UniProtKB/TrEMBL annotation, chain A:
Family: Belongs to the binding-protein-dependent transport system permease family.
Biological classification of the source: Bacteria, Bacillati, Actinomycetota, Actinomycetes, Streptosporangiales
Chief location bin: membrane
Protein name per Swiss-Prot or TrEMBL: Multiple sugar transport system permease protein
GO terms under biological process: transmembrane transport
Residues passing through the membrane, by range: 24-46, 91-112, 124-144, 172-196, 229-252, 283-304
Automatic annotation (TrEMBL), chain B:
Organism listed in the record: Nonomuraea soli
Keyword tags: Signal, Sugar transport, Transport
Name assigned to this protein: Multiple sugar transport system substrate-binding protein
Gene3D superfamilies: Periplasmic binding protein-like II
Keyword set includes RNA-binding: no
UniProt-listed GO biological process terms: maltodextrin transmembrane transport; maltose transport
InterPro entries: SBP
Length: 314, 405
């Protein structure tokens, strides 16, 4: 977001008009990005901040209510009976989905990195879920999780594990959703792969000569050297997981299905809850407040990670 | 995170940009007036032709009047409409989803139906009552209506049940004959199940609420019995079977409750399924729920008289039949002829004559989704008795609305 103009001004000996021209060009170059940022991000975000302190339904004039929306969200269980449930769902999802996604991505990257031939093909195949339209993802996984015809239950039954009613059992909904996100780990996989390529072969070779086996090499060389990559993926992964919406929406909405986040609100992700208040329950002001609560929460979580998670390669 | 809000803001921009030219609509001079009407995008090209024909007929009958129809995809409709209203670029008259009428009425965004515009009994009561505001006044006219009825698999359930007891017996019989087949697809405790539930309660002679006297009624015995019916039906209809993909269509359930939209899709995709539709079984009186589109006139419109004229025209005896069909529902005018035929068609027509409107409470969708639906689900899952669940839900609703009595 921070597109600061740092182009001109280096060459001291240039004449003043020349420098001014540089400035003009610089501003012109960043103008499109800046206009986009101000019109489509900054202005709406600031308006949303304002509206979060109002009672507003999109149609009428917003009336100022101070911190009422925020206080009510946290304390009024009559007005917002499922607010804390949505927080809980989202945290659970994040705790399960992020490690699962990163783990899957790392394993995929290690496997692709290890093979000599056909790595392009596998990379493509493993990346496909990322570029699949969300509605299609929803349809595919509803089918895979089908209690009667689903492929997942058929596979489980081969191993003697009884099939589950995945998307209709409250306890299983979040793991089932997290599993889909792990399946869509392609971007993390590509970034891990780039990280792996960046580890000099000589270091691994030296470790091998020193007698380190594959597992030791992975623990003592690969993992420490991947730390910046892992840290980046952790931070962005947590942010994305806290904002999960599309996946839940396509899984739990559509003709004849609930819009309310699955059985017993077990899939009522924070942003889905926000969306319902904004566009279904006519409470745009409260929805704006929810979005700012999430923003602050994400900032805190990210700061905590920067403080307590090791990020430099060792 | 604030993407949705950003989208709304962007929308507002776009609408101000393109809507500013035409909204004022025709100087007051009688010779040329423009009426702007917003509606959902056509479901089919044929539906578009129907609307276009009605528009031309209206213009012919009213020289000097131009009706400008703006069609907006249904998913974006409410957001665009809300943004346009707030930026004062809204239409004169528009389609409006039923449960939004009482909200818009409460805002003062729309105007009351002028006395004498329609005579008593012009429209079916259920459909007409979906236009009520909390104050007991009418704020719009119905365009079409839809509702749910009982779909039954003729092989599994040869004669459709007409009472609750018969329905339970039929369900048990189906499941007893083959434990892999469910008696029926019992609705769930979600927004959709919550929408159907009032129709069942009305079949036991009770409304969900009495808006005029600010009383919540759905914890009364009649409603508890309705929920108990679903709980009982679930015993012969395990979810393990009915949660699979399209269980009724695949012959895994004897009955289901659904709407007219499912008839053509089943005929097309499951041609071998031998099914039909009957009105919902009831306990004390035939009844059902209702959905559909209404239309309202905006306070900012300089052409309110013309707008009501347009609405009574498109819903009159002649036009309402084809219009309702174009919109995907059934006519609301008592004398209009519905397009279509066959036993399913007859069943839905009979059903809609006894439809009951949702309580005219602006917060009803939220109450439906966040309070009633979870209560239904906890009763269905056996976490609470039907009475406990509904008592709890009714108390929550009273607190939310401040109707403590």
């Amino acid at each position: 977001m921070s597109s600061t103009p740092v182009v001109a001004g280096r060459r001291r000996r240039r004449s003043a008009p020349g420098r001014r021209r540089d400035h003009v060009i610089a501003w012109l170059l960043i103008a499109p990005a800046l206009v986009y940022f101000v019109v489509f991000l900054l202005y709406p975000a600031l308006s949303a901040l304002y509206y979060s302190f109002t009672d507003w339904n999109l149609r009428t004039t917003a009336s100022w209510v101070g911190f009422q929306n925020y206080v009510d969200l946290f304390t009024d269980e009559v007005k917002y009976p499922h607010f804390w449930k949505s927080v809980q769902v989202t945290l659970q999802y994040t705790i399960i989905a992020v490690p699962l996604t990163l783990g899957t991505a790392l394993i995929q990257a290690l496997l692709i990195n290890a093979i000599k031939r056909g790595s392009n093909l596998f990379r493509l195949l493993l990346f496909l879920p990322v570029v699949t339209a969300e509605a299609a993802v929803g349809a595919i996984w509803r089918w895979l999780y089908d209690p009667r015809y689903g492929l997942i239950n058929s596979v489980l039954e081969v191993f003697g594990i009884p099939g589950q009613n995945w998307l209709n059992t409250p306890e299983l909904v979040i793991p089932a959703l997290a599993f889909i996100s792990a399946w869509q780990c392609g971007i993390a996989m590509i970034i891990f792969l780039a990280g792996l390529k960046g580890i000099p072969g000589s270091i691994l070779e030296a470790a091998t000569i020193d007698g380190a086996n594959a597992f030791q090499r992975f623990r003592k060389v690969v993992m420490p050297m991947l730390r910046p990559t892992t840290f980046y993926l952790l931070v962005t992964g947590v942010i994305a997981a806290l904002q999960v919406f599309g996946l839940v929406y396509v899984i739990f909405s559509g003709a004849g299905r609930s819009v309310t986040g699955g059985p017993e609100q077990s899939g009522l992700a924070y942003v889905l809850h926000l969306y319902l208040f904004a566009f279904r329950y006519d409470a745009m002001g409260a929805a704006c407040a929810m979005s700012f609560i999430l923003l602050v929460f994400i900032m805190i979580i990210t700061a905590v990670q920067f403080k307590f998670v090791k990020q430099e390669a060792a | 995170m604030s993407r949705a809000i950003a989208a709304a803001a962007v929308l507002a921009f776009a609408l101000t940009a393109c809507g500013s030219g035409d909204s004022g609509g025709g100087g007051q001079a009688a010779e040329s007036r423009t009426l702007t009407y917003w509606m959902y995008q056509d479901r089919t090209p044929q539906a578009g032709e129907v609307v276009e024909k009605i528009r031309k007929d209206f213009e012919k009958a009213n020289p000097g009047v131009t009706v400008k129809i703006v069609k907006i995809p249904k998913d974006d409709f409410n957001t665009k409409l809300g943004s346009a209203i707030s930026s004062k670029t809204g239409p004169d008259v528009s389609t409006l989803d039923q449960p939004l009428v009482s909200k818009y009425a409460k805002d003062g965004t729309i105007v009351e139906l002028p006395a004498g515009t329609v005579s008593e009994g012009t429209y079916f009561k259920g459909a007409y009552d979906t236009n009520l505001g909390t104050d007991g006044k009418y704020y719009g006219l119905p365009l079409d209506q839809t509702g749910v009825a009982l779909f039954y698999n003729k092989k599994l359930v040869p004669t459709p049940p007409t009472t609750w007891d018969e329905m339970k017996a039929a369900s048990e019989k189906v499941h007893a004959a083959d434990p892999n087949v469910a008696g029926m697809v019992v609705p769930k405790g979600d927004g959709y199940g919550g929408w159907m539930f009032p129709g069942i309660v009305a079949g036991n002679g009770l409304e969900m609420a009495d808006v005029a006297s600010k009383k919540i009624l759905f914890d009364q015995p009649q409603a508890v019995e309705a929920l108990q019916l679903w709980v009982d039906l679930l015993k012969s209809s395990p979810r393990k079977i009915t949660d699979s993909d399209q269980p009724f269509q695949n012959g895994l359930a004897g009955m289901m409750i659904s709407g007219p939209w499912d008839v053509p899709t089943i005929r097309e995709q499951f041609p071998e399924l031998d099914f039909s539709v009957a009105p919902l079984p009831y306990k004390t009186e035939p009844a059902g729920n209702i959905g559909g589109e209404n239309a309202v006139v905006y306070k900012t419109s300089p052409n309110q008289d013309l707008a009501w004229k347009w609405l009574t025209f498109i819903t009159n005896e002649t036009n309402n039949g084809p219009l309702a069909d174009a919109l995907g529902g059934f006519p609301v005018h008592t004398k209009a002829t519905a397009v279509g035929s066959g036993p399913e068609h007859e069943a839905f027509l009979a059903q809609l004559k006894v439809a009951h409107a949702r309580p005219a409470v602006p917060e009803w969708i939220q109450i439906n989704d966040e309070i009633i639906a979870p209560a239904i689900e906890s009763a269905l899952l056996g976490k609470m008795t039907a009475q406990e669940a509904l008592t709890d839900a009714a108390n929550k609703t009273r607190s939310l609305l401040g109707w403590n009595s």
